[in-house]
Amino acid sequence: MEEHFGNRRDEPLTSEDLTVCNNVLDDLCAQMDITDNGTVTHLASIIIELYRQGVHEPEQLKLLAGATRDDPDP
Fold first, then answer.
1. What are the φ and ψ backbone dihedral angles of 13, each rounded to 5 degrees?
2. Model-level pTM?
3. pLDDT digit string (tens) for 31-66?
């Protein structure tokens, strides 16, 4: 039996979706020199939420997720 979701946002992410999100996370962590596990986890949740909301382009994900990071050291 096929399960239907009322909204794309409620559908489980595919392995391809997760690969996109993981690549974006890896790129952002490298660019921003992020190594703290808590920060990485927080950034990952932001990327996944943006992806679920329909942002699927890696560059857009990087831009939007990266903009959410508070950087106390300018």
1. -75, 140
2. 0.81
3. 999 999 999 999 999 999 999 999 999 999 999 999
